[in-house]
């Protein structure tokens, strides 16, 4: 992708799954990658370095503003700038609405929605000062169309779309870009734990492509939207879902 070499990218939730695949893709494009995760990201950093890129792991709790600010400060100290933020950290605590607890609601909203606000708020002063920057956020097809048992998750993933579009209306003339990627059903460790019968009868039946997506396919979407090839794309939601939303 054009324009990613030597860019500094922070990816939250980068220790595993889609986040890790995205970190590796940016490394292959020549970017410097900050693996930001509450889980241990040391192994991801080693894989990134094996691809010839510079990388550091920073432990971060995206729900804590002071913790997030420390992550941003350390990134600036290490690499001197921030070009791309990928808000990918997220959790699920599923239950049907009649059984969903306030604690389950608060936990998901805190990480998936407030965490995006916290991270974007922290990088914004640096991006505005340099008059360039890209903020990409992981939404979901669930955020677009809802899902049984995921009131909290769907609300959070729809919420990040609303925030993203609002930021574009506020800052499109500043040189900053804000977009979302909405993955469908992807072969992450979480999905692989679903019983095969459930996977076939409840999930894959909804996907015209007939298969799960691969984390690397989501990573490719992030790389494109961060690149110079996407300079005129701002405020969009790119669904990467095997046509499951048709």
Describe the protein in words.
With 246 residues, this protein is an alpha/beta fold. The protein has a single domain, classed as Rossmann fold (3-Layer(aba) Sandwich). The protein contains nine helices and seven strands. It has a seven-stranded parallel beta sheet, with helices on both faces. It is globular and about 50 Å long. The two termini are 29 Å apart. The mean pLDDT is 95.
What would the keywords be for this entry?
seven-stranded parallel beta sheet, alpha/beta, 246 residues, Rossmann fold
List the helices and strands and how they pair.
Elements: E1 8-12, H1 17-28, E2 32-37, H2 42-50, E3 55-59, H3 65-79, E4 84-87, H4 102-130, E5 133-138, H5 141-145, H6 151-171, E6 176-183, H7 189-192, H8 196-203, H9 215-226, E7 237-240
Parallel strand pairs: 1-2, 1-4, 2-3, 4-5, 5-6, 6-7
């Amino acid at each position: 992708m054009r324009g990613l070499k030597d860019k500094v990218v922070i990816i939250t939730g980068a220790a595993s799954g889609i986040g890790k695949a995205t970190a590796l893709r940016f490394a292959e494009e020549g970017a410097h990658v900050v693996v930001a995760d509450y889980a241990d990201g040391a192994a991801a950093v080693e894989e990134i370095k094996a691809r010839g890129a510079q990388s550091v792991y920073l432990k971060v709790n995206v729900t804590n503003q002071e913790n997030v600010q420390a992550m941003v400060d350390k990134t600036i100290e290490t690499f001197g700038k921030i070009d791309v933020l990928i808000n990918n950290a997220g959790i699920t605590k599923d239950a049907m609405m009649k059984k969903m607890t306030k604690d389950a609601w608060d936990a998901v909203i805190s990480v998936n929605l407030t965490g995006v606000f916290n991270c974007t708020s922290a990088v914004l002063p640096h991006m505005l000062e340099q008059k360039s920057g890209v903020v990409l956020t992981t939404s979901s097809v669930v955020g677009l169309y809802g899902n049984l048992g995921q009131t909290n998750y769907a609300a959070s993933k729809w919420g990040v779309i609303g925030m993203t579009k609002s930021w574009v209306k506020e800052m499109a003339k500043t040189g900053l870009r804000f977009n979302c990627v909405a993955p469908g059903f992807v072969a992450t460790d979480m999905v692989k734990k679903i019983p095969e019968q459930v996977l076939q009868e409840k999930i894959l039946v909804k996907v015209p492509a007939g298969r799960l997506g691969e984390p690397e396919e989501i990573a490719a979407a992030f790389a494109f939207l961060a690149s110079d090839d996407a300079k005129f794309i701002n405020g969009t939601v790119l669904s990467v879902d095997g046509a499951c939303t048709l």
